[in-house]
Amino acid sequence: MKSNVGGTDKIIRILAGxxxxxxxxxxxxxxxxxIGIVPLVTGLMGWCPAYLLIGVNTCPLKKE
Length: 64
Prior knowledge:
single chain
């Protein structure tokens, strides 16, 4: 799997995932807030299957 999630995108995904999961644990908006696992995992992995399907890549290009 080639990385397709860039730095800023990763930070936003990880923060959003943490906030949603914290809300789920506190019982605010549950069970829908458990979806926070998706942005958290994709942010930590640096790869998003949805980006692959629609052809998006937020990683900066590597100079050779």
